[in-house]
């Protein structure tokens, strides 16, 4: 192994294809995005360098403010929902006393493999104001909670976030379950000997030892929330008005609907920086030390 | 030593790769062929298909429903008779705000002939991705066949022709269920006040006053435009061109009154999340008294509701009772365009003109649509007689005093996005007319530099 790592040519040969692909598929588009964010560009002509004008406009744009706010709401909502429920379910399914564990394991993961379009259409029919199952259920129970779930400018972002959180909770569940399974049984036996109850054992053993998995889950859900696009594209088209815009949706709308690619790129640049900061902060604050058993 | 050399080689490789791509990205757009744009002044009167060689032209066109399939199929049949050696390879147009066409243009893969709307023409013009058709309009005789009232559809505001239009100045209509109006003893509203009364009556009887598929933002734009035309015949077109301000009385009143009607229950619950099928079902099933759509809805509504459906003039505002004949909707310079990079430019232009003409024939023959851009052979009789609503509309057409534009006919893409988003916002009860005006005004100042 040592000899292998000493062979620099071999390393270069093996790394080069991946590096080249990364440069072409990720680094180059990112560079272009930052460069074009300083241009007034319609996507076809050469474009005109306008310095920081796009960024100055961004901070004065109410759509940008809505997009930032929605990204943060979306991130927070799906992070809390997915990670908390996934933790409870993963701990429950990891318990050998629970019957039908395999069924639950598959059932919780099932929405993840469904097409996002199918999931959105399913929930669109549930949330339909006129015929939707949810409003009908409230009517049946004589509860005054029926409302325009997706036509309310303040609530619709939460509804869309819920749909996303519902679909991808199973992914976090699978990650956490795998994490729990990798914790040696000795730790729980030791906790039991020390007189810890099951809840205490999970609080003192499981949760701390899952910190690296949590870090990964956090990065996924926070950046996934900031990047959200498909759910709102299918469910509300960014509406009503611009109330369910996120930065990705704003970029799409500016570039592909208004043909202001330069402005769209500035929103995208901000999104990249936002995701980078979120990732750095999570890396800095969560699971700073590597856990080995 | 090796490490240093390796690092140098790797750095050099990285720099070279980056430089290559940077240069590629910063490269100028492809030089427009000499025959394109203003240089293209030599369109020949000779048929462009002199030899027996079969020429395949790529075409990017709508082919989604009866309204688009029937005219296309008819035009292709007719094309085979006149141009037997021309074969069209259809690439079906995606409903994607022109993204696919934009990508074709950006990657130099434009089809020979493509359908294009007004806003995208502006972008294509700037980048030299659309052929100026002025000479072909003359050489093909297309210009002579265009109705006087449809000249605005052929000629862009810069005085050039970029596409051969086929659709005429189409209109936004408010349809109503005569049986429901009679059942609840409601007068077909002619004024804003009568519309308010109708809304109250229908709401009291659990009938949705107006069904609108407001998830689609073009219809929310048209609904606002209907109200704007009550005091300003140019409607949103005035804002699109930069000649008007959102703070003008016509637009302020339109926003305030439309929003007021929304507050008192003009639309169904969740209207801004309702698609066409859902809204149309409300109307067809007698759960909604009125329905807003383009005049192309006439055929479907007649089929579903028979003689219980009709269209009404938009209710007028007390400040201007003369707005009865001012209609929302209209046309814009768009239709079949030609790529300046086409190998068979002359032939593509001829075929594009031919297709547009045949589309008009098909619309008249099979779709009972008299709103056409081009005059057709008067001896051609429609396969089915016009429905009564269309007959009535045909009678009214000569008296129409003004039209505006549909969202896809707006020439400024930034304004199009703005009005689409803001008009949908206006249809939600908790978005005020003041917010609408403020946001419109702020954005219009930026767009038009007012």
Structural summary, described in words:
The complex is a heterodimer of chains A (293) and B (450). Chain A has 293 residues and is mostly helical. Chain A has one domain: MetI-like (MetI-like fold). Chain A is built from 14 helices and 2 strands, in the order ααββαααααααααααα. In chain A, a hairpin with a 7-residue loop joins strand 1 (39-40) and strand 2 (48-49). In chain A, helix 2 packs across helix 14 and helix 4 (62-94) packs antiparallel against helix 11. Chain A is flat, with a radius of gyration of 23 Å. Chain B folds into 2 domains: 49-162 and 332-386, 3-Layer(aba) Sandwich (D-Maltodextrin-Binding Protein, domain 2); 172-330 and 403-448, Periplasmic binding protein-like II (D-Maltodextrin-Binding Protein, domain 2, 3-Layer(aba) Sandwich). In chain B, the strands form 2 sheets. A 4-stranded mixed sheet of chain B has the order 2-1-3-8. Mean pLDDT of chain B is 88; it is low at 22-46. Classes of the chains: A mainly alpha (293), B alpha/beta (450).
């Amino acid at each position: 192994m040592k000899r292998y790592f000493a062979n620099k040519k071999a390393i270069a040969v093996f790394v080069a294809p991946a590096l080249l692909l990364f440069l072409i598929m990720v680094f180059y588009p990112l560079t272009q995005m930052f460069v074009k964010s300083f241009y007034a560009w319609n996507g076809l002509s050469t474009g005109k360098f306008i310095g920081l004008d796009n960024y100055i406009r961004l901070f004065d744009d109410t759509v940008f403010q809505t997009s930032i706010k929605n990204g943060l709401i979306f991130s927070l909502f799906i992070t809390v929902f997915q990670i908390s429920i996934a933790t409870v379910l993963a701990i429950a399914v990891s318990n050998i006393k629970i019957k039908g564990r395999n069924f639950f394991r598959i059932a919780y993961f099932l929405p993840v493999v469904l097409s996002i379009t199918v999931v959105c259409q399913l929930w669109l029919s549930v949330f339909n104001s006129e015929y939707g199952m949810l409003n009908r259920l409230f009517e049946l129970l004589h509860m005054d909670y029926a409302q325009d779930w997706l036509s309310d400018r303040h609530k619709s972002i939460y509804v869309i976030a819920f749909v996303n959180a519902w679909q991808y909770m199973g992914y976090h569940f699978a990650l956490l379950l795998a994490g729990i399974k990798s914790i040696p049984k000795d730790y729980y036996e030791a906790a039991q000997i020390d007189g810890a109850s099951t809840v205490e054992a999970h609080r003192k053993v499981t949760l701390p030892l899952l910190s690296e998995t949590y870090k990964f889950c956090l990065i996924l859900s926070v950046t996934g929330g900031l990047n959200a696009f498909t759910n709102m594209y299918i469910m509300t088209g960014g509406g009503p008005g611009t109330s369910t815009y996120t930065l990705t949706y704003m970029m799409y709308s500016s570039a592909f609907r208004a043909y202001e690619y330069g402005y769209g790129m500035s929103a995208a640049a901000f999104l990249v920086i936002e995701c980078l900061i979120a990732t750095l902060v999570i890396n800095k604050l969560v699971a700073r030390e590597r856990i080995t058993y | 030593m090796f490490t240093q050399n390796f690092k140098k080689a790797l750095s050099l490789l990285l720099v070279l790769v980056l430089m290559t791509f940077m240069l590629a990205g910063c490269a100028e757009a492809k030089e427009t062929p000499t025959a394109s744009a203003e240089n293209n002044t030599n369109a020949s009167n000779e048929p462009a298909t002199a030899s027996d060689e079969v020429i395949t032209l790529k075409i990017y066109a709508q082919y989604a429903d009866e309204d688009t399939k029937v005219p296309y199929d008819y035009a292709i049949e007719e094309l085979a008779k006149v141009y037997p050696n021309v074969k069209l390879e259809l690439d079906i147009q995606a409903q994607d705000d022109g993204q696919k066409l934009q990508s074709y243009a950006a990657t130099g893969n434009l089809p020979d002939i493509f359908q294009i709307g007004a806003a995208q023409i502006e972008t294509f013009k700037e980048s030299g991705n659309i052929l100026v058709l002025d000479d072909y309009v003359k050489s093909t005789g297309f210009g002579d066949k265009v109705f006087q009232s449809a000249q605005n559809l052929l000629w862009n505001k810069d005085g050039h022709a970029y596409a051969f239009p086929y659709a005429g100045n189409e209109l936004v209509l408010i349809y109503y269920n005569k049986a429901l109006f009679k059942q609840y003893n409601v007068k077909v509203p002619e004024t804003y006040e009568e519309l308010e009364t109708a809304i109250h009556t229908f709401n009291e009887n659990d009938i949705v006053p107006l069904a609108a598929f407001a998830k689609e933002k073009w219809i929310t734009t048209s609904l606002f435009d209907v109200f704007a035309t009550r005091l300003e015949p140019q409607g949103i077109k005035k804002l699109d061109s930069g000649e008007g301000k959102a703070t003008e009385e016509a637009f302020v009143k339109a926003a305030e009154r439309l929003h007021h009607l929304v507050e008192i229950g003009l639309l169904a619950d969740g209207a801004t999340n309702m698609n066409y099928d859902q809204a149309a079902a409300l109307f067809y099933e007698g759960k909604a008294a009125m329905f807003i759509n383009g005049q192309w809805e006439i055929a479907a509504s007649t089929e579903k509701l028979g003689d219980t459906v009709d269209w009404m003039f938009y209710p007028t505002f007390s400040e201007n009772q003369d707005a009865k004949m001012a209609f929302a909707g209209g046309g814009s310079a768009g239709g079949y365009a030609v790529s300046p990079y086409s190998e068979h430019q002359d032939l593509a232009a001829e075929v594009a003109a031919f297709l547009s003409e045949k589309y008009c024939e098909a619309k008249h023959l099979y779709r009972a649509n008299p709103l056409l851009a081009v005059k057709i052979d008067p001896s051609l009789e429609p396969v089915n007689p016009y429905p009564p609503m269309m007959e009535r509309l045909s009678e009214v057409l000569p008296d129409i005093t003004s039209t505006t534009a549909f969202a896809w006919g707006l020439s400024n893409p930034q304004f199009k996005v703005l009005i689409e988003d803001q008009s949908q916002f206006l249809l939600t009860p908790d978005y005020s007319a003041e917010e609408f005006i403020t946001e419109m005004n702020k954005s219009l100042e930026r767009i038009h530099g007012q």
